[in-house]
Amino acid sequence: MPPLTHALAHGLGTPARNIVALSLVCLLLGASTTALGHGDVTPQEVDTKGLPDLGEAPLMENPFRPGNQHDDYHELAVQVGESGYGGNCAVCHGIQAMSGGLTPDLRKLEEWDDEYYLQRVSNGTERGMPAFRENLDQTAMWAIKTYIESVTP
Ligand code: HEC
């Protein structure tokens, strides 16, 4: 190949590749925006200020439930949980945890489901429940559980 043609081919090759790469990026971006846009499930941070840091090791029971280890924080946990629930769960599980029937009614969870609850919220499920372990710490998850219990008849 004469050097000029070579340079041209080369010079042309790069932008063409860039365009392919760019459209790929656009595709990916488009896809993720759609995923986030769907039902507005962008996780909202939960401000747990004032509540004890429960650490990493998963507790087996809601520590804020009356009679449990941190029940003196019960009121605050309900408040923190209410906003945490509103920002992260209500879109799918309903206002005040009243399910419209398409998702499980979280008010039906029993005390002995605590371990299951934490595990579900952390890991999500393959059938439409997102995992929250990257966005909510254990303190926030139990605060949300405490709120759900407070609106359970
Ligand atoms: C995008 C919708 C969506 C969001 C947001 C969501 N969930 Fe779910 N959740 C589901 C679906 C769908 C299921 C049922 C999944 C299945 O059966 O595998 C479920 C199941 C659960 C379960 C298991 C209940 C049972 O009876 O088996 C718990 C606990 C739960 N969600 C808690 C939460 C909490 C707490 C939040 C907020 C931090 C939340 N979810 C946010 C859709 C969602």
Which properties best describe this structure?
153 residues; mainly alpha; Cytochrome Bc1 Complex, Chain D, domain 2; 2 domains; 50% helix; globular; binds heme C; Cyt_c-like_dom_sf; heme binding; c550_proteobact
Describe this protein's structure.
The protein has helices at 3-37, 74-88, 90-93, 114-123, 138-150. With 153 residues, it is mainly α. The protein folds into two domains: 1-40; 42-150, Cytochrome c-like domain (Cytochrome Bc1 Complex, Chain D, domain 2, Orthogonal Bundle), CATH 1.10.760.10. It is globular, with a radius of gyration of 23 Å. The structure holds heme C. It comes from Billgrantia montanilacus. Keywords: Heme, Iron, Metal-binding, Signal.
In short:
This protein has 153 residues and is an all-alpha fold. The protein has helices at 3-37, 74-88, 90-93, 114-123, 138-150. The protein folds into two domains: 1-40; 42-150, Cytochrome Bc1 Complex, Chain D, domain 2 (Orthogonal Bundle), CATH 1.10.760.10.
User: Major beta sheet, specifics?
Assistant: none
Which percent range fits the helix content? 40-55%
Q: Per CATH, what is the topology of the largest domain?
A: Cytochrome Bc1 Complex, Chain D, domain 2
> How big is the Rg?
23 Å
Along the chain, the helix and strand elements come as HHHHH
Q: Cα distance, first to last residue? A: 81 Å
Which ranges are low-confidence, i.e. pLDDT below 50, for 5 or more consecutive residues? 7-15, 17-38
Mean pLDDT: 82
InterPro entries: c550_proteobact, Cyt_c-like_dom, Cyt_c-like_dom_sf
Organism: Billgrantia montanilacus
Pfam families: Cytochrome_CBB3
Keywords: Heme, Iron, Metal-binding, Signal
